[in-house]
Structure formats: C-alpha cells, structure tokens
Amino acid sequence: MLGICRGRRKFLAASLTVLCIPAITWLYLFAGSFEDGKPVSLSPLESQPHSPRYAAAGPRERESLEVRVREVEEENRALRRQLSLAQGRAPGPRRGNHSRTYSMEEGTGDSESLRAGIVAGNSSECGQQPVVEKCETIHVAIVCAGYNASRDVVTLVKSVLFHRRNPLHFHLIADSIAEQILATLFQTWMVPAVRVDFYNADELKSEVSWIPNKHYSGIYGLMKLVLTKTLPANLERVIVLDTDITFATDIAELWAVFHKFKGQQVLGLVENQSDWYLGNLWKNHRPWPALGRGYNTGVILLLLDKLRKMKWEQMWRLTAERELMGMLSTSLADQDIFNAVIKQNPFLVYQLPCFWNVQLSDHTRSEQCYRDVSDLKVIHWNSPKKLRVKNKHVEFFRNLYLTFLEYDGNLLRRELFGCPSEADVNSENLQKQLSELDEDDLCYEFRRERFTVHRTHLYFLHYEYEPASDNTDVTLVAQLSMDRLQMLEAICKHWEGPISLALYLSDAEAQQFLRYAQGSEVLMSRHNVAYHIVYKEGQFYPVNLLRNVAMKHVGTPYLFLSDIDFLPMYGLYEYLRKSVIQLDLANTKKAMIVPAFETLRYRLSFPKSKAELLSMLDMGTLFTFRYHVWTKGHAPTNFAKWRTATTPYRVEWEADFEPYVVVRRDCPEYDRRFVGFGWNKVAHIMELDAQNNHMGTCSHLPRTFHGPGALSSTIPYIIGHLSRNMNSSCCPMLT
Predict the structure, then answer these.
(1) Is the Cβ–Cβ distance between 221 and 311 less than 8 Å?
(2) Which of 41-45, 70-74, 328-332 has the lowest mean pLDDT?
C-alpha cells in the first residue's frame, strides 16, 4: 500500500512539473528579455526565420533568440520523457506487450494466453528490484549423461562461477559415466562455497521410458519432467539449465525473478524464438500444442513446493498420454510436454524476458532480444550444429563461449568473503598439512607440491571397452604433455589393445587437444583409448601423479607401464596376453620386463623379427635404451643374454634400475613426491622389488623402441634436471 501511495505521489508531482515549469520558463524569458525597454517576442510565428520581426532584428538578437527557443524546447522534451516514465511506473495491472517482438524490459509474466483475459496475478510491482541475500544459496539442476555432455557442463559451470557472488548448490542428474567424471572433477576442483549432489539418472529411466522421443537428447531429454520427484522434498525452488547454456551475468539476477511469481505461477520460461510451434516450417508440419510460439525449456525456474501441491506428476503424465495418442512421439523431448501442459493451464507460467534464454538455433528471432552486449544474460546453443549455427552475431557469441571454454578453471577457486563455507574435511586436512611445512626449508616447494590438488577431468573423450573375458587383458599406461601429441597416432597404430593416458594440459591446451583428436581419423576410430586431463598448476611437472591417474582408471587385470616416446612392436599386445598365462602372473608376484631400444634416426624401417632387430643393433641403427647417457638404468636387463635367449629368464634388481614392465593392476602406485625429471621410475621399481616381485625378461619378440629424437626426449625435463639432485637428497623415496 505504501508503494502504491508513493507511486501516485510521484505521478502527480511529475504531472505538475510538466505543467508549471514551461509556464515559469516562458514568464522568465518574457520578463527578462527586453531590448531598449521593449519585450522581445518568443511566439512561434515571430521566431521563424521569415517572420517580419525576425527579419528586423539584428544578427546578435536573432542568435540569442534561437538559443533560448532551443533551450525551452529541450526542457519540454526532457519533462515529457520524465512524465512517460512516471506513467510507466504507475500502479495498476500491466497489460503486457501486445506486439510480436521480444520485450527488452523486465518480464511481467504476461503470455499470449494471458492476453486473452487470464491476467490475474501477473502485474509487477513498482519500486526496486528484489535483491538476493548475500549468502543465500542458489540451487541449480542439470541433467547430464555421457562423455560429451560432461565436457559441456564444465563450460556452463565455468560461466556461472565466473559471475557468481553467492554460494551454489548443483543438483546433477547424471548417468554412471557423467557422475564418475564430474564427481572427480568437482572433488579436485575444490571451489569454495560450491556443493554438488548427484542423482542416479539410470534409476529414473523407468519414469519416462514409456514416452517415444525423436530428439537427439534421447531418454535423458525427458528427465526434467520428474525433478519434483527426484530432488529433495525440502527443496522449494531451483533453476534448471540445459548443458549447452552459457551465462553472461550473475545467476543471482535470475534467482531474484522467483520473487516476482504471483498467484499460481510455478514455471518461469522464455518464449520460444523460432516458428516451430506455429506449424508453418514445412508442409504437413504438425508440432505439439503450445501457446503461440510456445516456450523453450533450456532455462526453467521451478517452484518445486507449489508444483508438488498441484500434483505436477499427475498433470504432465495425463497430458502426455492424451497427446501421444495423436502425436505418437515427442520431437523436442520434455519441451513438447511442458508446452502441452501450459496450453491447458496457462496460469502456471511466468514469462521471462527473452534475454534469459537467447536461443541460437537456425531461423530464430534471437537478435530481437538484445540491442547491446550489456543486454545479454544467457546464451543457449540449442541447435545440433552448436557453434556452427547460422546467426547474425554468431561470431561474437562463439568468442564468448570460447572464452569460458579455455578459461583457467583454477582462477575460479576464489573465496566468497563474508559467506561461511560448509566444513570440508579434505580442505581442512590439506590446510593443516600445509601449515606444518617449514617455508625456510630448501625443499619447501617440493614438499608442498605433493599436497597440490590438480583439477582432473577423466575420460575427456568417448571411451568404450570391455576387457577380454579370459582375464589376460593388458592396458598400455603412459603420460604426456602437449609437445608429445604427435606420438598418439603412431602408438595407436602399433598397439591395438586398450590405452590409458594422462595428459598434463592447461584449459586452452585441452581444447587444442580436443580439436586435434577430433580431426584425426586414427584417434576417432579408437574407442578403447582413455584420455584423462590433469590441469596444469604450479611450476613442476607432476610425472608420477600423472602415471597414478592413468593407472587408477584401468579396467584390465594387467598394466604395461610405458612412456609416450616408445612405440611397441607390432603384435606386442597379443604377445603379452600369452605371456601373462605362460608366466602365471595371476597367481604369482612377478613383473615382466619388456626390453627397450632407441634410435637416433627420425625415419626407421621397423624390424619385423628379432633377427632383423639384432642386425640393426650390430649396424648401429639401434641401441639399447639410454646406452650413451645412463647405462645403469637398463643394464640389469642383461641384453647380452637376451640376444641368445629363447625363453624368459629372471633378472635381479640393481640400484638405479628403471625398466618398462607388465604388472598386475594391484601393483603399488608411483611416489608422487617425485616431480620433473629423474628417479621417478627408479623408486617405483625399487618398491616392486621390496614387495618381492620377481622380475623376468621376455626373450623372444617383445621389445619397445624409442621413437625419433631419442636423446632430445629429455628436453622438456631439462628445467627440472637441477631439481633431480634436490629431489633425491631432500625428498626421500619410499622403501
């Protein structure tokens, strides 16, 4: 009531101002403008250039007269604008926008159905915009399934975190693949004031599997319909987002719109910006029923508590069953059913301004949602073409999306000052361990490195592999950085079995790798290669951490611990599987050594037999690995014996021994305290020996070859070479 009174007073004051000020202004000009005691007329007629009085006046008088006239007219225009604004803020029901364009002003909740007479509860209040409390938690729900959608979620989350000023609670309805990927990502991301809960999407399939769906999102595209049943009963409201959304503003602004819901409004939606639901896209086009253009469900505001009271489950099910009798299937997944429900119950909707869901599919009217960059709030790539969609301003939108795609996620680990975070045991333990370190210690940076939590994105690309049923399967394990990408295709050609790789990359490099992989026929044809991204942080190369990440996510019973610079002989995968049975690795603690060789040539005719390899050794085309710089590293392999051996033989461990081995999956991890170059594999082999793992060398065909540029392979680690001595003297190995 107080707000209405104030609004009326403002309206009255503005009206009086418009009426009084021009009169006073003209009186002032009339009284103060005299020439030789005679008043100067300012009538419109006499102010025209061709009037008699105007012609008789001198140049200075005419100039003064024109200036005053312009000033008065400008004041009148300003006052008229002020009056129109006051009228726009006056209390009373809003009629909404009757035009077909998309309003740039704050949403009123009006929709086309409401224009037909259903306007109750949709008027907006005058006064200040509702404000979200500083530490109020904003709840966001996202349905995510599979490897590609998991990558999309990361970009969406980055855009939200970049702008946010409030605690966030993400509710992720995910399949087992997405949950494994995103749970690890958020655990290692460790963003303050962010909570993540997962809900098993596979358990919800039975709720929507009866609905035929032609949309590319599949069965997961229908799961937003069951959020009232899936999310916690005490959760009252939630923002629901598609994975192909990018935020350009603080999500708290969208959360504040909940305060504008009136009456029975329980759904906040943006009008669909294409002609899909108008039914005129092609001949015999028959879309699901909708109000006018319908609504897009890429961004939804749900009042869960009210929806439950309205029996939303029963409402949408009855509507879907009725419409499916004629439509047979959905074309746009949950969006079709939401629109059919709204068609029958238009009072449910609060229409959001269209800048909360700027839809970039083909043939949309999205450009009518904004006049300037500052108008943009949410960008929705709702076309199967994604970044390749045709749009007038797609280049700008694409650059905005790529900014978040390549943005360093570590920079988003910022505290929300004044908002207490929930107690995190892992974070508290980490801080305690860091506080116990002596910063004056010469090895402080090395010791601190072992507590660094590197953000990790598992299975960056699609992975699909079932291990062989005979329990002999072997996975090649390696780690690499950006400068070794060129080795991937060659390794895939030489090793047909499963591969687990840990890549140490920045966010921008991860996208370069993605483009490289997607452009490679060799890599895209292989679904049994797991790429795990460990994001860069700090000054050291965490070589053993990378190996551990690759080892931990192996699904086969045996591992071939190799390096990225080595190309296996053709057929090595099958040979090792046979050797696993021959050496009874399943029931004994053995490590099977694969002899390693290197070449100084960039081009090499790969030997097809042991005899050919021996010939190349004799000619100096090949060498035993690191023969010129570190013979102790592989000397215990006993290459002289290997030349004539026809059966596997036992090898005794010696100091500094670092062979490449096949071991069981339950072998110990690498000591992550070793970073950079030097002693990292030596410590692991020592531990294998300390645990009574007998080592044997394959005598016949198996071997690995070091790729071109063998001696230069340590160049990426030369910077860390000085730390090798510090590492060994200050940071003890496990024994």
Answers:
(1) no
(2) 41-45
CB-CB contact of 346 with 289 (8 Å): no
The bridge status of strand 38-39 relative to strand 358-359 is unpaired
Closest CA to 703 of 658, 644, 639: 639
Burial 635-647 (b: 16+ CB within 10 A, else e): ebbbbeebeeeee
What are the tens digits of pLDDT across the range 374-385?
778 999 887 666
Phi, psi of 460 (to 5 degrees): -65, -30
* Residue partners of 139: CB distance under 8 A and separation at least 6: 169, 171, 235, 237, 238, 239
Q: 406, 372 in Cβ contact below 8 A?
A: no
Give the pairing of strands 529-535 and 558-561: unpaired
First to last CA, the chain: 78
- In whole angstroms, give the CA distance from residue 105 to residue 50: 45
**pLDDT attached to residue 465:** 94
pLDDT in tens, 679-688: 788 889 988 8
Which residues does 388 contact at the CB level (< 8 Å), separation at least 6?
Answer: none
Quote the pLDDT of residue 632.
Answer: 87
The number of beta carbons lying within 10 Å of the beta carbon of residue 170 is: 21
CA distances from 526 to 491, 507, 531 (A): 12, 24, 12
Amino acid 54: pLDDT: 42
pLDDT band at 390 (very low <50, low <70, confident <90, very high): low
Estimate the crossing angle of helix 680-690 against helix 543-552, to 10 degrees: 50
Cα separation, 221 vs 200, in Å, equals: 15
User: What is residue 693's predicted lDDT score, i.e. its pLDDT?
Assistant: 61
Look at residue 484 and give its three-state secondary structure. Answer: helix
Rounded CA-CA distance 267/109 in Å is 10
Give CA–CA dist 722/345, Å, rounded. Answer: 72
**pTM of the full structure:** 0.77
- What residues are paired with 696 via a beta bridge? 592, 650
Residue 439 is encoded by which pair of tokens? 């910063």
Scored b (16 or more CB within 10 A) or e, 650-663 reads: ebebeeebbbbbbb
Place of tokens 């797991």: 530
Strand order through the sheet with 194-200: 194-200, 168-174, 138-144, 237-241, 295-303, 267-271, 349-352
What pLDDT score was predicted for residue 616?
A: 87
Q: Give CA separation, 49 vs 26, 65, 70, 323, 344, in Å.
A: 20, 11, 14, 72, 65
